[in-house]
Design goal:
Length: 219
């Protein structure tokens, strides 16, 4: 079985990850490199682990999380689709079985809110993990006077906890937002589609998605 540790050692993949971030830096996007993909990988695996899925599904979710943004090295537009195809070929070259690499391709190809939706347990876990990573550490731009809305909202999030409560069957995103940087309403203006995508992904896993901002449950 190909594991996450095997994938991390793949030199081709590491170059694609680096190139993806290089291109996003030029375009002015938030961070999508090692920090982000490592968080998404860990969280996607944790979602399925806590909900009692088997080790193989958990490992595939981790790999999906680690590889999900490599399509950004082609173009930000349709990065989920190009990344899915690239991931499939890399994993094929590494010797992963067709069923497993197809599962990963499906998950990566459906993680973007503009074109995708939860189509499997792995896909749903990837969506929840990816959309939960909102934090000021993702802001690459160091000049606050030039922040766009995405920079401002991410930078305003000073604390983000992602919790899977097995007993209550909940996925909880608990955010602390500095409202002196941006109002809470701006979060919804930027992230409403992602929030709804998370809600549908949680439903696929037969759990509830709950959003808490500054101590107030909003969803």
């Amino acid at each position: 079985m190909i594991t996450l540790e095997d994938v991390k050692k793949n030199e081709e993949l590491q170059e694609l990850i680096a190139s993806s971030q290089k291109q996003l830096n030029a375009l002015g996007y938030t961070e999508h490199s090692i920090r982000h993909i490592s968080i998404v990988s860990e969280r996607a695996g944790r979602v399925l682990e806590i909900l009692g899925y088997d080790k193989n599904r958990i490992e595939l979710a981790k790999i999906s999380g680690y590889m999900h943004d490599i399509g950004n090295c082609v173009n930000r537009v349709d990065h989920a689709h190009s990344g899915a195809i690239m991931a499939y070929q890399i994993l094929k070259d590494m010797g992963m079985d067709i069923k497993s690499r197809t599962e990963i391709m499906m998950a990566i190809g459906n993680h973007d809110e503009n074109t995708g939706t939860a189509v499997s347990d792995i896909s749903a876990a990837l969506i929840l993990a990816d959309k939960s990573d909102v934090h000021r550490d993702r802001v690459v731009n160091t000049n606050m006077s030039t922040f766009d809305k995405h920079d401002k909202v991410n930078y305003a999030v000073t604390k983000a906890n992602f919790i899977i409560n097995k007993e209550e069957r909940k996925a909880i995103l608990d955010l602390t937002i500095d409202t002196s940087i941006c109002p809470v309403l701006d979060y919804f203006e930027i992230f409403m589609e992602r929030t709804m995508m998370s809600k549908h992904a949680a439903k696929y896993l037969k759990i509830w998605f709950e959003l808490i901002i500054n101590g107030t449950k909003l969803l």
